[in-house]
Amino acid sequence: MSSEEINMIERDPNNLNDHVKVMFEDVLAEPEGAHSADCVWRNSYKCFNCSKNCCYMFLTFLCGLPLALCWGCEFAMITFQHVWQITPCLRVCMINLGCAQKFFGTCINCCLAPICEAMGLCFSQIQVKNIS
Known about the structure:
The protein is mostly helical. It is 68% helix and 0% strand. The N and C termini lie far apart (83 Å). The relative contact order is 0.03. Pfam families: Caveolin.
């Protein structure tokens, strides 16, 4: 399949919309001991599926193309923003903060590390004994 072709059978190959797989059995269920007449249950099934499918088809005809256009533009703007704004800005921050990290790391190693090491040596000679 070329990049221009789309799969007309498997339309959700990444299972993005698994949470909206709504079948009659997922919505309506009669527990044991509370059954309606068979003709009501059978026709409810047909009515549910017909209305769900017809309404979905009507909404997709009415809104599908305009929404696809809007979402395409939205993701184009997000991509543009990441490529031309966010990623370069993050790179600038990483470069500048890398210099700051080296500077402050050197200061801590030169000034604070000897003090901590000396205090560690002083306190390492303390011994605690339990007298019972």
